[in-house]
Amino acid sequence: xxxxxxxxxxxxxxxxxxxxxxRVADTTLLVVGFGSYRLALERLIGALGSGDMDLARxxxxxxxxxEENEPGGLGSDSTTPLxxxxxxxxxxxxxxxxxxxDAARSLPDRVLLTGRLDHNELSTLLPACEAVVVPxxxxxxxxxxxxxxxxxxxxxxxxxxSGLAEVSAALRRNVPVEAAGWLSFxxxxxAVPALARCLIGWLQADESxxxxxxxxxxxxxxxxxxxxGVAGDVIAAARGELDRLQSPAARxx
Length: 253
Known about the structure:
Shape: globular
Strand order of the largest sheet: 3-4-5
Radius of gyration: 19 Å
Helix content: 40-55%
């Protein structure tokens, strides 16, 4: 949910989706938003769906160059490869690649790019989702989408950095141990399979774990990220009631 640009990391999620489809039946991925990288994402989905790994690797190598939706993109000086996606492609041996592409055949039918949705539409969509992925590869000041997902009872699976990590850390304290590890993944050369493991773990989890997790997500969002929760922290700080506030030293860097 957001602008479709390279720094939002949508390529990591597209790359991970065949791994999810291989393990979990009847899954559908919605990509909500608009932006200059949409055409490249559609081409990546088509390439993987047709088994054209040469094209998929070319798209990953050209990376940010394709963000302007023009044949020449931003020019050769602006080419920034999707190195984490490339690292995943290059890690697949022959057997792994065959299984991956077999699962990827259904990608065009199991990934839907919705375009832009307004807030009133998202308020209906998010509670119907099992999970919301926030795979940004660029620092975010705050994980607003993750907090909104938690408020709706959808598991936020976020990149483990910047403001996203702050939201994940807050949520992690109020969910079962099993679910805590599904809230985030490290953005590095292993990001694609790590993201897939988070989603597979959550989608295959026992219903009792999922029920407890949803309760913890909603409670944390209400207490810390609602208007009332934020206002309470501001008032406490203004009154000098610092024991009510989380220590900055405890916050993730």
